[in-house]
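Recall that a protein's primary structure is simply its ordered list of amino acids. Everything else, from secondary elements to tertiary packing, is in principle encoded there. The following example makes that idea concrete.
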Amino acid sequence: MSKSGNAALQARREAAKNTMEDFTRNIQRKKEREMAELQFVGGEATAQGPVQGGQKTGRNDPCPCGSGKKYKKCHGS
C-alpha cells in the first residue's frame, strides 16, 4: 500500500475507534442514569412505616407490612 493508503486506513481505524468509545460512553451514562433513578425510586419504595396491628406477630410469621419477609428480618430487628 502507498503512504496515502496507509494514512487513510489509519484515519478510518481511528474514526471507528472513536465511534466505539463514544458509543460505550453513552451506554455507560445511560446505565448510570438508570441506576440513579432506580435508587431514587427504590429509596421511597423501601421506606417502611410503623407496623399497625392488634394481634401479636410471631418472629417467623410474615411481616404485616407486606414486604414478604419474616417479621424477625423486617420490623422485628
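The chain has one helix and no strands. Helices lie at 3-45.
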